[in-house]
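Give me the fold.
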Amino acid sequence: MPTQEYYVRGVDDTEARGPFTVEQLITLGETGQIDAETLFYDAATEQWSTISSNEQLKEAVFPQKKKLSFKPREAIQDLNIQKEDHRAITVEQILAAAEGRTEETKDMRSRVDAQHRAARIGLYSGLIIFLLSTAALLLPNIETVSTFDPVSIAKQPLLLLGLVDLACSVLLGLEVVNAYPFIRFRAAFGLGFLSVIFWSQGHPHVAMAIVVGSVGMYFCTVFVSYVPVITSALLGLAGIGGFAYFMLR
């Protein structure tokens, strides 16, 4: 119908006008030049018919307009009544939701608490791992360390690394989580440096213990879920514990 064209004429007219598209007929209807009783030429029947006799054309040219009406007074009054579920949210409710103290957010709070506990497991496991590493690196040459001679200590890289591990232990004991990037670097450095030294010296079992311990040491500061953290802690304690055993026996 949008592309179909029509000829129209008045009831008393002898000449037809057109052709017009539906859009043009709508304009003619809006300006009062045609109405529902205007005749149009129906090509299907080859006859002149009134626009009102063709429901589809009538609806297109003279669409019914929706009537506006006022709502009942009672309905308008209801709009001004504050319902229970439409009350304003208070600052206390927002804070309670953020802290997981509401029914809707309590599950989120439980997950956050679980992650916090898992992170603390990783923190204290890392502390024990670094204490073991400190003992393994410093105790075999404690006499040199006790002299506090910087030159003598600098000649033994393992002693320097042991002092670094002691500093890491202090940071973890103070719960300085901002030191995690440095601690991860120390774990990666030990994985490469120490394992190569002991492997080249013919101690593959010590090198393997260092590899396992360094991996656990690294991931203790990464994971915040129980299973990965506990797995990392066990690897770190077993590996660095074995390293300390081989160094101190």
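The chain has a mean pLDDT of 83.
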